[in-house]
Amino acid sequence: MQQEILDYVDSLAADLQHWRRDLHHYAESGWLEFRTATLVAAELHRLGWQLQMGREVISAEHRMGLPDAATLQREEQRAIEQGALTEWLPHFSGGFCGLVATLETGRPGPVVAFRVDMDALDLNERLQDDHRPFRDGFASCNAGMMHACGHDGHTTIGIGLARTLMTFAAQLNGTLKIIFQPAEEGTRGAKAMVEAGVVDEVDFFGAIHIGTGVPAGELVCGCDSFMATTKLDVDFHGVASHAGGRPEEGRNALLAAAQATLALHTLTQHSGGSARVNVGVLRAGSGRNVVADRASMKVETRGGSNQVNDDIFARTQQVIAGAAAMYDVEHHITLMGSARSSQPTAPWVRFIRQQAAQIAQITSRVDSKNQAAGSEDATWMMERVKARGGQASYLIFGCDLSAGHHNEKFDFDESVMATAIKTLTLLALNIDQYREEEK
Fold it and tell me: Is 185 known to sit in a ligand binding site?
């Protein structure tokens, strides 16, 4: 039966390619995945999965980095024009573009959940013949939105996994969940789903990614190098005045922002581990002869542990408040994204490594790997699962890439999608074997 399942996944290759290329062509950025979410919902409903959607699985008050109402409305209309299924759209309207699919087998067993993300990046794709998506006619048709991180592949993996698990449901036990998450880029979406309770009953959890510099054929069974992060926008509000005639009547927001920028970049020392602060954007002023009454900054902090990041973020807020007070201006901080640092659960990682040994396309299996110091908001889900007594890990499936992630020429070897589906299917199929071994 196990070989039959692996052969079945191989038979899906053409369908997987079609799904991936369609999603790539109609790339949608975070909280704007209207078309993507409706197509996923329709397909999983057709397969017989139970669905929870939109506000059922996303806490409105915990969404971060949400586009303004005009953008949400405009992009929803754009999605309709590009084939979003209007019968499903009300579930996702307003940017609630997440869903959770559940398969209850009716037989005793744990709750096993896998998370895939759906959003594209705010990036223009390369439109030249040296880029395969353009050459083969599936480059993004949406300006400023591109799948340059592989989330089109992740969503396709979720769809293929749903087909496979439902086809072989008679061989499964317990409850299976597939979480389709919006707005991973900028670490904006996972916390809102966690606060809606989507992983509260989960016993075993896995999030996935493809690529990330991991060589083709290698599986990282438990990536443990993600840094905790907090992302924030800062607005300073002062008083404008004539810079030559009445400078003393002004309150200079530009100077407050500049002072904060210089001070923030001194905060990167922490005895608890690695720490980062970056002011990536600073805008201010309206003219050379006007004391600037407005300034804005885009800032992020990171830490090698949750405690380090929390400490750096607290000091960041103090620095910003101090700079505002120094120049007698008001300030406002808006939280735009966050993620945690999370260590995978060792027994679950061992089981992942064991199951992956049965897949011919995986030629190397490692528990962890030194990665660049990035962040990933699936860590919110991992931490909640572990806090409630479950086990969690983050899997990276290596594959060949045409360019690095977040690059206008990004593309990947599509065969990795079947490899990921096989791995996740075996984890679900053989979960009782894990439980027996751990007794």
Answer: yes
